[in-house]
Amino acid sequence: MKKIVVLTGAGMSAESGLKTFRDADGLWENYPVQQVATHEGWEADPVLVTNFYNMLRRKCVGVQPNEGHRLVAKLEEQYQVTVVTQNVDNLHEVAGSSHVIHLHGELMKVCSSWDVENPRYWKTLTPDDCEIAPGTKAGDGSLLRPYIVFFGEAVPNISMAAQEASEADIFVIIGTSLNVYPAAGLVQYVSPGVPVYLIDPKPVMAGSSRITQIQKGASEGMKELCALLMK
Fold it and tell me: What is the band of 231 on the pLDDT scale with cuts at 50, 70, 90?
């Protein structure tokens, strides 16, 4: 079974109505990114940051995957599919994708603020219980913080994503430009001769003859791609 690796960015979730802190204006839901998505912001005011992510989770719980998410999941009927996403929502999982690598963390998880990558202290929240009271502590005695890769922090899953990209028979990019890390970096791991499809409504300076752009949004672009790849 051939392997497809799908890299998704902000444009994937935008159709479902979710904003992302990677937007160009440096704001996330009208909050300065420095205040809510950096280690310095967390240290300065953990109550504000905790409440901010509680608000984001409440918004996310009411959001549904769009047709693009569902069509990415449908590819699993004929391919081995790995989704690498820059988004922190769980819409790929809700849509049915079974192998998702999150580069920038997961909104529905919280973790130790001393030992972020220790799974012993991870807690996955549910739609019915999606808020953390400020001051709640992890098992190691530190404050529970969002399991989000803040600006300036290392991206722990980037090496895993690069390995997946190197094994791809087909590589698909949806809703993220090739000027933004880590998208540009991951493409470099794709083997020569492997077709690369890029779905984005804006023209992208791809700089490679093997990249085929489908100049549409996530849902319409995935319909066109599925018509090519699904028999």
Answer: confident
Q: Given the residues 69, 92, 102, 104, select the one marked as catalytic.
A: 104
- The 10s digit of each residue's pLDDT in 24-77 is 566 777 888 899 999 999 999 999 999 999 999 998 888 999 999 999 999 999
- The C-alpha angle with vertex 104 and arms to 76 and 65, in degrees rounded to 5, equals 45
Instruction: Give the C-alpha distances (Å, rounded to integers) separating 165 from 57, 160, 174, 179, 190.
Output: 30, 9, 14, 17, 5
CA-wise closest residue to 104 among 141, 45, 56: 56
CA distance 222 to 45: 41
Among residues 47, 31, 55, 38, the alpha carbon closest in space to that of 143 is found at 47
Paired sense of beta strands 196-199 and 211-214, if any: parallel
Taking the C-alpha atoms of residue 19 and residue 68, their distance in angstroms, rounded to an integer, is 16
| 111 strand-pairing partners | 145
Residue 23 has pLDDT above 60, yes or no: no
Overall size of the chain counted in residues: 231
Q: Could you tell me if 101 and 149 are in contact, meaning their C-beta atoms sit under 8 angstroms apart?
A: no
Work out the percent of the chain whose per-residue pLDDT is above 90: 78
Is residue 92 flagged as an active site residue?
no
Please state, in angstroms and rounded to a whole number, the distance separating the CA atoms of residues 197 and 135.
45
Average pLDDT score over residue span 181-208 = 84
Q: What pTM value is reported for the model?
A: 0.93
Q: Judge contact between 29 and 197, C-beta under 8 A.
A: no
Let me know: does 7 contact 183? Beta carbons within 8 Å.
Answer: yes
Beta carbons of 218 and 72 less than 8 angstroms apart: no
